[in-house]
Amino acid sequence: MKVPVKVDGRELTLSNLDKVLYPEYGFTKAEIIDYYSRVAPVLLPHLQGRPLTVKRYPNGVTGQSFFEKNAPDHTPGWVRRANLPVPGSTKNRETIDFAIVDDLPTLIYYANLAALELHVPQWRVDEDGQALPPDTLVFDLDPGPPATIVECTRVALMLRETLKEEGLTAVPKTSGNKGMQLYADWDRREEPSAYAKRLAQLLAKEHPGEIVSVMTRKLRPGKVFIDWSQNNPAKTTVAPYSLRARERPTVSTPLTWKEVESCEDPHDLDFTAPDVLARVEKRGDLFRRA
C-alpha cells in the first residue's frame, strides 16, 4: 500500500508502513518514520552539510542490509547532492553523488527507504558542494568483551580530562550498540587523525590494563579500544539520534556527563527510540555545542 504525503511542501510516497522492521520489538516502518520526523529538530543540525552514508534494511534488521553512499537514481530532484571524489572506491568510481540531509523531506525520504542507520563524516561541504576541512574530532570507544559500556565510561572520563588539558571540550553519546563516542569541536591545529592517534596512544601507555589504541583483536578482550581512525576524512561515524539495527530500536544517544560518571550497569545507557523522544522533550539537544 502506498500513501502520498506532503512534507514541508514536498510530495512523497510512503510505502509498506505496516512492515515490521524490528521483529523482536514489533517496531514498524511507520514508527521509524514517525521517530525520525519527531526527532528531526535535534537531528538535522548534526546532518546538515555532511555527505550521507546510510545502512538500509529493506527486510528489517534480521534481513540483508547494505551500505549506500551514492544517492539512488530514483532520488527526487529536490534532494541536495554533492559530487565528491572517493579515492580507493571499492566500486572503481572516481566520484559519488552523496545526498546532503538539510531538511525534513529528505530525512523522511530516507526513512521510507528503510535507511535505519545514518552515518556522516567529521566535515561538511560548502554551498557549492565542495569539501571543507574537518570541523569535528571524534573518539570511538569500543569495548572488548567482557568489557562493556561501563568500562567505556571510565575511559571517556580519562579522555575528557586529557582533552580539557588540550583546551578541547568533549561531549559524549552512546553508539547505540555496545560502546560510546566522544566529540569535540576541532580547531584544525593539526591533522585530526594523527592528533587523535597520539592521544589514544598516550592513554593506552598510561593505562595499559584498561585501554588499547590498536585494532589487533587479540589485545582487546576486557579492554576499551580507542578508535582514533574515525577522523580519517574517508570514514563516517553514526550520527547522534540515528537508530541502530539491533534487536531493539536503540539509538545513538547524547548523554550528560553526570550519566557517564554514574554508570554502573550497561542498561543504564541503553536507550530506544521512545526513550530518546522523551529525553529530547525533557532536555532538548544534549549534543548541541556552542
Main beta-sheet strand count, sense and barrel state = 5 strands, mixed
**Total number of strands:** 15
Number of helices: 6
Quick one: CATH superfamily of the largest domain?
DNA primase, PRIM domain
**What is the CATH C level class of the largest domain, in words?**
Alpha Beta
- What separation lies between the terminal Cα atoms? 44 Å
Keywords:
290 residues; alpha+beta; DNA primase, PRIM domain; Alpha-Beta Plaits; four-stranded antiparallel sheet
Summarize the structure.
The chain is α+β, with helices and mostly antiparallel strands and 290 residues long.
Describe this structure in words.
Keywords: Ligase. The protein is an alpha+beta fold and 290 residues long. It has 2 domains: 2-132, DNA primase, PRIM domain, CATH 3.90.920; 136-231, Alpha-Beta Plaits, CATH 3.30.70. 27% of the residues lie in helices and 23% in strands. It has helices spanning 29-47, 104-112, 149-165, 192-206, 257-262, 273-283; strands at 2-7, 10-15, 20-22, 27-28, 53-56, 66-68, 81-85, 95-99, 115-120, 136-143, 170-174, 180-185, 211-212, 224-227, 237-238. Strand 11 and strand 12 (180-185) form a beta hairpin. Helix 1 (29-47) packs across helix 2 (104-112) and helix 1 (29-47) packs across helix 6 (273-283).
Topology:
Blueprint: E1 2-7, E2 10-15, E3 20-22, E4 27-28, H1 29-47, E5 53-56, E6 66-68, E7 81-85, E8 95-99, H2 104-112, E9 115-120, E10 136-143, H3 149-165, E11 170-174, E12 180-185, H4 192-206, E13 211-212, E14 224-227, E15 237-238, H5 257-262, H6 273-283
Parallel strand pairs: 13-14
Antiparallel strand pairs: 1-2, 3-4, 5-6, 5-9, 7-8, 9-15, 10-12, 10-14, 11-12
Helix pairs in contact: 1-2, 1-6
Organism: Nonomuraea maheshkhaliensis
Domain DNA ligase D polymerase: 28-287
Pfam families: LigD_Prim-Pol
